[in-house]
Amino acid sequence: MFNKKISIAILLFLPFLASAQKQDTIPLSQILEEVQINGVNAGEKTPVSFTNISESEIEKVNLGQDLPYLISLTPSVVSSSDAGAGIGYTYMTIRGSDASRINVTVNGIPLNDAESQGVWWVNMPDFTSSVSNIQIQRGVGTSTNGGSAFGGSVNLNTNGLKSKKYVTLNNSVGSYNSLKNNIEFGTGLLNGKWVFDGRLSSITSDGYIDRASSDLKSSYFSGGYYGETQSLKAIVFTGHERTYQAWNGVPQSYLDSLPTFNPYNYEDEVDDYRQTHFQLHYNKQFNTNTFLNFATHYTKGAGYYEQYKGDKYNSLLNYGSEENLADYALNDAIINGDTITTTNLIRRKWLDNDFYGITFSANHSTKKMNFILGGAANTYVGDHFGKVIWSELYSDMDHEYYRNKATKNDQNIYLKTDYSITEKLNLFLDLQTRGIQYNFEGLNDDGTAAEQSVNLNFFNPKLGAFYSLNNNNDFYASYSVANKEPNRNDYVESSPSSRPKHETVYDTEVGWKFNTKNISLGINLYHMDYSNQLINTGEINDVGYSVHSNIKESYRKGIEVAYGVKITKNLNWNANFTLSENKIVEHTEYIDNWDTGGKLEVHYENTDISFSPNIIAKSEVNYKIKNLNTSWVFKHIGKQYIDNSESAERMLDAYSVSGLLFSYSLMFKNIKDAKISLQVNNLLNNSYSNRAWVYRFISEGWNPVGSDPYTNADTDGYNMIGYFPQATRNYMLGITLGL
Q1: SS3 336
Q2: Which pLDDT score is estimated for 25?
Q3: Cα–Cα distance between 280 and 185 in angstroms, integer?
Q4: Helices and strands (H, E) in the chain, number of each type
Q5: For residues 174 and 632, what is the distance between their CA atoms, to the nearest angstrom?
Q6: Which helix (H) or strand (E) holds 56?
Q7: How far apart (Å, rounded) are the C-alpha atoms in residues 374 and 430?
Q8: pLDDT of residue 445
Q9: Which residues of the chain are modeled with pLDDT < 70?
Q10: What's the confidence (pLDDT) of residue 10?
Q11: What would the pLDDT profile of 443-491 be if each residue is shown by its tens digit?
Q12: Can you give the C-alpha Rg of the chain in angstroms?
């Protein structure tokens, strides 16, 4: 409460206490810093579907929510949050593909976790305050570093050189005790060559869901030298998150009466993780046509999540069972002559990892042709281990009960070229090879543990054409192939004989862009044909684990339309929508039979891929007059299925939400730049869930409904579903002040 009062005071009185100074970016930095992103970014005439988001567009909505929410108005993107309010654990999909299929880079350096292949935005709180632009590519896109882009890629580029010194304060306060404070500062250009910048941030929130609190800290520092033809820039950014777990979701029967329900109430049922990134970029301009970027990087991450386990399970559901001592490599205890084999305990599961490597890109252009040769070589070392820190039998302790170490090497090299056949026609060719060597502690065919290794080599070609009919009309078409390896669990929880195959996608994109002074229109048709796509079918492999299974045929196809209209001098309307079909041609799901211990097989044909809405629509109407800028936003997301059976009993309903954003530039005698913003989310106070988990089973001998609130009757037996409701109407009030 004290921190919130201080922040409100800052919001009210800072405009009267300070002055602002405008910022510039010198042309030299624009040239040299573009070198490091040209290798992975699409250009104006690249024949792929992409959206660029500028620094000013980021600042407009950056009041504390994580990146998936800040880019949620772009085509084909759906965002969600564990805590419901966009702070903490947040997620996004692009064309229905989840984070493990979306490649993310920061200044061309891979961000995806090498093993899970996901991106955890909670580890990078307020990072967008240090981002100058974002490019989102949909589909396979252009070759990039790191994991394969099966649904899309997101390229983040940190702040460019600011030639004048500055200090910027950002403070936001809002619903659910949400609070953001940050300070950004820079020296400007010193002696015409040196620049230093920094940011310190703190974000806290109680979350919409009960006890789904977040305590997030982050920092960003950079220092650069800019010569006439070269630059050297060092970047360090770190994030520390401590979030109370809200991973279990809300039972279906509670959605109307207790939509903020969280079963956890053990005090330290938390996730606690720190991650620090180091980057060093060297850019060289040899002449007006030839540029080079070389970068080296190192990321250190370490943290844990803590859980109370046992029959006195500290949960509002009041269920659980004591944990077997043998499962935690603990000896049985003898108490009063009795042999004790179970206990209540608290455990922590740790991840201690290191990621390091190099990236490079060389760009050479002639009058008709442009070449980019790039690539990367990266190594990941992940140490997974668990500890029991307390039990009723042994009290305080520090007992390690498992450790699993993995090393993954990833190398790629690509050559991109576009050739101007005529002034109107450009041909594009992008060839990439990628090699992976993954060593881990896995399982033999008999289920015993053993060191395992996997070696994969991929060839990912892309080709296309871009045609400019006239100043207003452009057309493009491309065909791309991408290959993707299974993730850590798919490998660790399988044997060599049951190990899943890698996935392949064949992506065809055809588009038209139309632009006039007052109208912009883009239409993109896509067809993504998958071979051996990995999905969760419930099948148990030969060592007893339920892992992803390869599906022979599946596809995504659709149309993406984005348009903008300048209605009057002050009134603009921007909108986009995606209509799609996302299908699995045929597959078999396996449902647990609690009576026999076996599996029921159910065959499906032509069903929707889970979490793939057939319609995604967004709209923003913006009106600006003098110092006031207002926006009304609207989103509609069609129904989504929680699994791949296309059953209405396991479905998320379609939903629509709208919001308002007001920003007002303040004018004071001694202040050049100050702004107050008010964001109203879910204006009409709608109740909806846009993410869930499901587990299906059969039990003919016992009706489990009522024994567990997550259990529901189902046509094929029973299911357990945990829903993730999103926040009802909520607010954020912020002020930005430049000194």
Answers
A1: coil
A2: 42
A3: 20
A4: 5, 40
A5: 19
A6: helix 55-61
A7: 11
A8: 79
A9: 1-38, 540-545
A10: 36
A11: 887 778 889 999 999 999 999 999 999 999 999 999 999 999 999 999 9
A12: 26
CA gap 709, 117 in Å, rounded: 33
102-106 vs 152-158, strand pairing mode: parallel
* Distance of alpha carbon 199 from alpha carbon 220, whole angstroms: 5
Question: What pairs with residue 244 in β-bridges?
Answer: 270
Which of 496, 501, 500 is CA-nearest to residue 452?
A: 496
What mean pLDDT is reported for the chain? 91
What distance lies between CA 75 and its chain's CA centroid? 15
Q: For residue 406, what are its two tokens? A: 């993995």
Here the tokens at position 315 are 């949960």
Element containing residue 69 per DSSP (H, E)? helix 67-70
CB 668 within 8 A of CB 14: no
Q: How far apart are CA 415 and CA 67, in angstroms?
A: 30
> How is the chain split into domains, by residue range?
2-738
DSSP labels, 177-213:
GEEEEEEEEE---BTTTEEEEEEEEEEEE--SSTT--
**What pLDDT score does 313 carry?**
73
φ, ψ (nearest 5 deg) of residue 491? -85, -50
Retrieve residue 16's tokens.
Answer: 């009267």
3-state class percentages of the chain: helix first, strand second, coil last, to nearest 5: 10, 60, 30
The reported pLDDT for the residue numbered 33 is 56
Give the H or E element holding residue 32.
Answer: helix 27-38
| Alpha-carbon dihedral sign for residues 99, 103, 107, 113 | positive
The structure tokens listed for 716 are 């094929």
For residue 550, give the nearest of 608, 594, 598, 484 by alpha carbon.
484
3-state secondary structure 632-676: EEEEEECCEECCCCCCHHHEECCEEEEEEEEEEECCECCECCEEE
State the Cα–Cα distance between residues 19 and 296, nearest whole angstrom. 38
Cα 172 to Cα 732: distance, rounded to the nearest angstrom: 6
Write phi, then psi, for 653 (nearest 5 degrees): -65, 155
For residue 360, give the nearest of 29, 37, 136, 41 by alpha carbon: 37
For the domain bounded by 2-738, which CATH number is listed?
A: 2.40.170.20
CA distance 711 to 208: 24
Residue 542 has what pLDDT?
A: 65
Please state the pTM of the whole predicted model: 0.93
201-to-204, 226, 660 alpha-carbon distances in Å: 10, 27, 25
Beta bridge mates, 463: 429, 479
Structure tokens at 232: 């050297």
98-123 CB burial, b ≥16 within 10 A, e <16: bbbbbbbbbbbbbbbbbbbbbbbbbb
Distance (Å, whole) CA 62 – CA 67: 9
Q: Tell me if 124 sits within 8 A of 141, measured CB to CB.
A: no
- What distance in Å separates the CA atoms of residue 34 and residue 53, rounded to the nearest whole number? 15
Q: Which residues contact 583 (CB under 8 A, 6 or more apart)?
A: 554, 555, 606, 607, 608, 609
